[in-house]
Amino acid sequence: DANRQISEYKFKLSKAEQDITTLEQNIGRLEGQVSRYKNAAENAEKVEDELKAEKRKLQRELRSALDKIEEMEMTNSHLMKRLEKMKANRTALLSQQ
Questions:
Q1: Which segments does the entry list as coiled coil (predicted)?
Q2: I need a labelling partner for 26 at 20 to 30 A (CA). Which of 9, 32, 54, 55 fits?
Q3: What pTM value is reported for the model?
């Protein structure tokens, strides 16, 4: 009976050691995954920051371009009015002759 119990305990010990080995391997695998996920998250945050900076830069450029367009449209309108006045003056001069 004692031999049977000893054999049973040896078997349980062997099984427990196998379980411990399996769990240690799982821990190593999971630590590797955590490390990879952490690196991926850090890289994603870095890319996100770079994209935000690029977006701000592009928005500044867009505002600048829109301001320039508005300024050119105003200049164009002013020049068109001057051209119309000059045409009107020329027509008036030609009709007086």
A1: 6-89
A2: 9
A3: 0.61
